[in-house]
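This protein record is not my work; I was only asked to verify it. The record follows directly below this note.
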Amino acid sequence: MAGTGQSPDLKFQQDRVMAVDEWHDRWKEGRIGFHQQDVHKLLEKHLDTVVNGRKGVRFLFPLCGKAIDMKWLADMGHTVVGVEISEIAIQHFFSEQNLTYTEELVPAIPGAKLFKVLILLNY
C-alpha cells in the first residue's frame, strides 16, 4: 500500500483469523510457504540483547511449525517450548532435526499430546 509501508498482502492478513482446520489442511497439503529454511534474521541479530549474557533462557514458540530456530537455540543451551496444533509439523521437525523424542498424552486436555526431546550439550 503506497505510503503506509505495508504490502497489500499484509493489509489483507492484518485482521484475518485462520481456522484450526485450515491450519491442519495447510500442513497436510504442504502449503507452508511461511516456513523459513534458516534461523530468523532478527532473532540472530538481536539474540545477544535478548539473552543478555544469561545461560538457559526459556523461549516459547507458539504455532512453532518446524521452526529450526528452536533447535538452534536449544543447541546453545537454552530451553525451548514449541506449541503446535499440527502433529504433521511436529513430526517433520523431529525428523528433519534427527531428534529422538518421547510422546505422552496430556490428561487435562482431551486429544493433546506432549512431545519431549532432551538435547545434551558438550561444553
